[in-house]
Amino acid sequence: EIFLRVLEIDSDDALANSGLGEISMERGHYDRAIEFFDLALRSDPSFSVAYLKLGRCLEAKEDFATAKNTYLRGIGIAAKRGDLGTASEIQGRLALLEQKETAKNI
Known about the structure:
Blueprint lengths: L1 H8 L4 H13 L3 H14 L4 H13 L3 H18 L2 H22 L1
């Protein structure tokens, strides 16, 4: 794959790591996806889409507290960068998490 070729040249490439994370996520390999998204964010902490995808993986693993913290970091970065689409998606994920928390406490 193209992402693997890019990583052979530059193992810190945020876009390639995020792309492999997304493929892993789509295949249900959440632990592997989390590793790729973490690598992407270490390379580029302002890569707001990676926060969204990382949060979704954490939700899939039912690590809701970490997902919420990830989303909160990501929404601030997305807003700061003017990435309003990603900020809106993250806000939606946060709202769903809050609904789940509320339903649990009832």
